[in-house]
Amino acid sequence: MLDIGSTIKLCREARKLTLQELSDRTDLTKSYLSRI
Question: Does the pLDDT value for residue 25 go beyond 70?
Answer without folding.
Answer: yes
